[in-house]
Amino acid sequence: MSQAFDFSTSEILNWELEQIQTALDNQEIGISEHAADAAAEDNLSLLNLLEAILVGTPTTKDLPNNALGRVAGINFEHITSDKRFYRVKVAWINEYLGFVPE
Predict the structure, then answer these.
(1) 46: pLDDT strictly greater than 70
(2) How much is the pLDDT for 101?
(3) Helix crossing, 14-25 with 46-55: angle to 10°?
(4) Using an 8 Å Cβ cutoff, are 52 and 78 in contact?
(5) What are phi and psi of 15, to 5 degrees?
(6) Which residues lie across from 77 on neighbouring strands?
(7) Listing from the earlier edge strand, what are the strands of the sheet with 96-99?
(8) With 60 as the cut, is the pLDDT of residue 1 above it?
(9) Cα-atom radius of gyration of the chain, to the nearest Å?
(10) Assuming Cys at both sites, which of 12, 36, 52, 71 could form a disulfide with 78, CB separation 3.0 to 4.6 Å?
(11) What string of H, E and C letters represents the secondary structure of 20-88?
């Protein structure tokens, strides 16, 4: 797969979301160690991370080399069944990686 996101725009494009869905269907999204540790600290399960991507709201796209130093990718927001808000990022670095931002 070539690059999964159009980093010439901060707009989240439908084809980018379709790429993420395809990667999920093909089990091509990996969870980084950092994401797993951050999720555990917040008492979030792998299912919570996947749920945010599947049914959460895509909210923003961080472009490469942004002023805040954030990893480039698309951020999703969701609320757990016990009403806790959380964010998950799907980033492109040679493969999909799920990140839980700080």
Answers:
(1) yes
(2) 46
(3) 140
(4) yes
(5) -65, -30
(6) 57, 87
(7) 29-31, 96-99, 85-92, 73-79, 57-62
(8) no
(9) 13
(10) 52
(11) HHHHHHCCCEEECHHHHHHHHHCCCCHHHHHHHHHHCEEEEEECCCCCCCCCCEEEEEEECCCCCEEEE
pLDDT at 23: 86
User: To the nearest whole number, what is the mean pLDDT of the chain?
Assistant: 86
Give me the amino acid identity at 11.
E
CB atoms within 10 A of CB 56: 19
What is the amino acid identity at position 85?
Answer: F
Expressed in angstroms, the distance from the first to the final Cα of the chain is 28
Name, in order, each residue with C-beta under 8 angstroms of 26's C-beta and a sequence gap of 6 or more: none
Give the pairing of strands 29-31 and 96-99: parallel
Reported as a single tens digit per residue, the pLDDT across 72-99 is: 899 999 999 999 999 999 987 666 656 5
Asked whether 102 and 37 are in contact (CB, 8 A), the reply is: no
Distance CA 64, CA 56 (A): 23
Q: Which two tokens stand for residue 93?
A: 């670095």
